[in-house]
Design goal:
The protein contains twelve helices and five strands. It has 370 residues and is of the alpha+beta class.
Length: 370
């Protein structure tokens, strides 16, 4: 039995509460039959022994499911068939057995043959005891009504379990998506900035022997960038959005210049919804980070324009153009763009590498359009 199954069983027992003990009240008919007419000592002995066997089986039935519960139901039915010649109230055992059957299978359709077989056995047993039709037909009818009502409740429970499983699956998928989003955010925030810090630290180290004032300036810049990164991480943890595409363009120019890459920016004024602007800002940051880390370029062209009803952000460098497999940065960029119906194109040629990101233009909040 899995942990989930144990949890489901415990939850069902909690939902039932005292109901199983209340339902034992129907045994009053079983006891009353011993007084009308008065039973013999042998009938009393058999009836009490049967009751001692029945109670553990009945209570155990609420702790199990499936084939084991089916076996318990038939054991209670058999107990009723054995005691019926000595106590006519033993038909109560048939009712309890019928009540368990709908919960022994995975569907009402699978339970129906067992219920029909048990109802037929119940009618046959009563008939074999010489009961008239007027005596056993109402008992069979009551058993059928109990079975049908429990079929309904069993189906309702199964439907509730399916909804619960589906809800748990959706929650798990949401948790996985959130973990992936946090991973992408941390990569976008820290991967870029740590690369800049390493770059500036190396530059300061090289300048320390021949240009101390500039080395100090670079170290102070490292301190400033570190503090800004710490602030960005705190904002990310608190659920804040990116500072925006405008701020990211300025940041990209500073980073490229510090790395010895000339930034050539051509930017059109495009208004985008906050979520889409955030995606493009992170995409620009990742693209510039890749240029600094891997390209060895001397120039980097960054263009933002509209084209065929789309916003197009293009980052091109004149560095080495090997089309290496996509890493986590590019994969994260592609996933972010897909979430807002965007696309990512990557080209490598003799003149360098080009990344082109496209987003459909949509109205901004408040009615303004791009």
């Amino acid at each position: 039995m899995t942990d989930q199954t144990r949890e489901d069983d415990a939850r069902r027992r909690q939902e039932l509460g005292w109901a199983p003990y209340v339902w034992l009240g129907y045994l009053v008919f079983y006891v009353a039959a011993l007084f009308m007419p008065p039973a013999t000592p042998q009938q009393w002995l058999i009836s009490i022994a049967a009751l001692i066997v029945f109670l553990p089986l009945y209570l155990y039935g609420f702790r199990i499911r499936g084939p084991r519960l089916l076996a318990v139901a038939w054991a209670i039915f058999l107990l009723g068939a054995i005691v019926l010649p000595h106590n006519s109230g033993a038909v109560a055992f048939f009712i309890y057995a019928l009540a368990f059957i709908p919960f022994t299978t995975a569907s009402a359709k699978a339970s129906a043959p067992w219920l029909l077989l048990m109802l037929a056995g119940m009618a046959l047993d009563c008939w074999a005891q010489g009961w008239p039709v007027a005596g056993w037909a109402p008992v069979v009818l009551v058993g059928a009504m109990v079975a049908i009502s429990n079929l309904y409740f069993a189906e309702k429970r199964r439907h509730g379990d399916e909804l619960r499983v589906a809800h748990d699956a959706v929650e798990e998928m949401a948790r996985i998506a959130e973990r992936e989003r946090i991973g992408r955010d941390l990569h976008d925030l820290l991967g870029h900035t740590l690369s800049v810090i390493v770059l500036k630290s190396e530059l300061a180290s090289k300048l320390a022997d021949r240009d101390i004032p500039r080395a100090i300036a670079e170290i102070r810049d490292v301190e400033r960038i570190s503090r800004e990164t710490l602030s960005e991480v705190r904002k990310a943890v608190q659920g804040y959005r990116s500072e925006g595409l405008h701020a990211e363009f300025g940041n990209a120019e500073r980073v490229l210049a510090a790395a010895g890459v000339e930034p050539l920016v051509d930017r059109s004024a495009i208004a985008l919804p906050p979520d889409e602007e955030r995606v493009l800002a992170f995409a620009l940051r990742e693209a510039v980070t890749n240029v600094v880390r891997h390209s060895g370029a001397r120039h980097c062209w960054i263009t933002l324009r509209t084209e065929d009803g789309r916003a197009v952000l293009e980052v091109k460098d004149d560095g080495c153009s090997a089309l290496a497999p996509e890493g986590s940065g590019l994969s994260g960029m592609r996933e972010r763009l897909q979430q807002v119906a965007g696309t990512l194109e990557r080209e490598a040629g003799a003149d360098g590498t080009r990344l082109r990101m496209r987003l459909p233009l949509r109205p901004r909040a408040g009615g303004a359009t791009a």
